[in-house]
Design goal:
The structure is a homodimer of 138-residue chains. The first copy, chain A, is α+β, with helices and mostly antiparallel strands. The first copy, chain A, has 2 domains: 76 residues, Winged helix-like DNA-binding domain superfamily/Winged helix DNA-binding domain (Arc Repressor Mutant, subunit A); 60 residues, 2-Layer Sandwich (Dna Ligase, domain 1), CATH 3.30.1490.190. Chain A has 5 helices and 5 strands, in the order αααββββαβα. Chains A and B meet through strand 3, helix 4 and strand 5 of A and strand 3, helix 4 and strand 5 of B. Strand 5 of chain A pairs antiparallel with strand 5 of chain B. The first copy, chain A, binds a DNA duplex (25 and 25 nucleotides) through helix 1 and helix 3.
Amino acid sequence: MQELTSMRLTTQRQIILEELLKVTSHPTANEVYDMVRKRLPRIGLGTVYRNLELMAETGMILKLEVGGTQKRFDATVTPHYHVRCMECGKVDDIKMPVQEGINEIAAQACHYQILGHHIEFTGLCSNCARSQQKTSIN
Amino acid sequence: MQELTSMRLTTQRQIILEELLKVTSHPTANEVYDMVRKRLPRIGLGTVYRNLELMAETGMILKLEVGGTQKRFDATVTPHYHVRCMECGKVDDIKMPVQEGINEIAAQACHYQILGHHIEFTGLCSNCARSQQKTSIN
DNA sequence: TTATGTGCAAAACATTTGCAGGAGT
DNA sequence: ACTCCTGCAAATGTTTTGCACATAA
């Protein structure tokens, strides 16, 4: 695991973290790149990937391995769950209590050493639910 | 959504489904391709992708949007959860009751129309847990 | 017979990596 | 100074797609 102590405080890292803290959405690496590029036009996409990965390893941010084709990143590091819109792919936090007991239940049901879990709810965001109604007339 | 009625029963589709039913693992598209190719050497990878996608749409199989870089496929369509080994990426089923109430809890905690959920446990499979012990002496 | 499916190859994405030069400590 | 980091571009890995031919119904 990456150690915090050996990690230099570069402009790139500061700005990536700042931009991630600004939003409540869960941007993809490419979206972070776009956000950061407004302030640092010469930053490379590779740098963004490298640093998001590094920050996720140190626990500064969360890397969400949710459905869809791209990984997403989240500056809220306290444990919580997510909803993903099946239509547009948007991901939001869910403010509900973490299900404490289920790791133990799972551990008894398999031969893995269970270290954690993540729940991803799927559904339709308010926008997509609305337009779904309109188009479902055919 | 793809309709079952308009889906032709081709050799390729039969064999892909047969091979998927044979295993309890959760193969990636490429692993399915390798399995199927032993019986149908001229099948194209594109055909495998197209058909896995189609079968997932009709509900014949499950497409697992779990962590890691590749999608995985599962012939067990009854609702169940998964464990993924953080070390080797292996995915297994967990035989534990589906948490019935949590969709309602989530629905009250956000503005989505909740349609379902999936729980992914993370940990170490028995193989990796063992070798972890050996290497952790440094 | 004809719409649907297939093999093949190219394209499209998402992510990682090698390297020469740049910057934090 | 001496690492560690960055930008750039090329490479890699996964999935999708266009097209001419094949085939199930």
